[in-house]
Amino acid sequence: MSKPVYKRILLKLSGEALQGDDDGGINFDTVGRICEEIQEVVDQGVQVGLVVGGGNIFRGSIGVNSGLDKPTGDYMGMLATMINALALQAGLESRGVSSRVLTAIEMRPVAEPYIRRRAVRHLDKGRVVIFGAGTGNPFFTTDTAAALRASEIGAEILMKATKVDGIYDKDPAIHDDAVRFEELNYTHVLSKNLAVMDATAISLCRENKLPILVFDLTAPGNIMKSLHGETTGTIVQGD
Fold first, then answer.
1. Domain 8-188+198-236 carries which CATH code?
2. Measured on CA atoms in the order 157, 162, 164, 168, is the torsion positive or negative?
């Protein structure tokens, strides 16, 4: 097998990715499958950072619609990401993959506080680093957290795992004539308002020249294929 194209990656998982076919919560069979794919990546000598959302447990926008103020709803969502981060850590550790959870909201009995140099040191030692609690601030999504952490640790690519095989000009679940893009630039994504990541995350990646790969996580083996240069989704880079 050829050598991986990347040495350090940031993998962004939605909270919904952990629920599998369930209506919510954590499906540990699905978590196990994801962890097995990550294990294969680590075995290739690739350093892996993870950012996970919390939408399978609680989404801040739902709280706002129920009467919570926006900051409170967002903080609750950040705490939900920590539950998912611990589930991923358990899945990885049970497979012999050393990992650390670093949190943007301090909770020392549960996880290490996020310190950039500490995160990089863990990666250099071959540990998977799971970044929990978003950025630690309300009004920012976990997509933005992923773009921020990827930039901070010097990741070579931000890989966003979704349930579709890339970026389309319109929703492929609704429109049969939706067209998939193989490559886009940041400006096109922003100007066309393509629903892949929020504008803050895209802008941050553009400023730091960080490529974004949007791919289908539900297809087994896609992470490894992407690492070896195969086209598995849509790449966003350049202007």
1. 3.40.1160.10
2. negative
